Amino acid sequence: MSDFKVGDRVKILPGVATPFVGMEGIIDEVQPHDEGIKTMSRHIVMFDRREKRAFYGGELVLVHKAKTRAAVQS
User: Fold this and answer.
1) How far apart are CA 19 and CA 70, in angstroms?
2) Whole-number Å distance between alpha carbons of 4 and 25
3) Fewest CB within 10 angstroms: 45, 52, 53, 59, which?
């Protein structure tokens, strides 16, 4: 199982994925590791330009959505 699920907004952390560091995208697909190794699950992230790239969970951090003003008032 993965720490991320389809639809989560994530940010790319510094590391091996240098060209994508700091970029945000949406988890489009989670591909569990064949032997169930959680840290080796691949996460397919779709960026704003519809470009997709695969990352391991350690390369990602969940981006928490800011509450909208309407949601705060209700």
Assistant:
1) 36
2) 12
3) 52
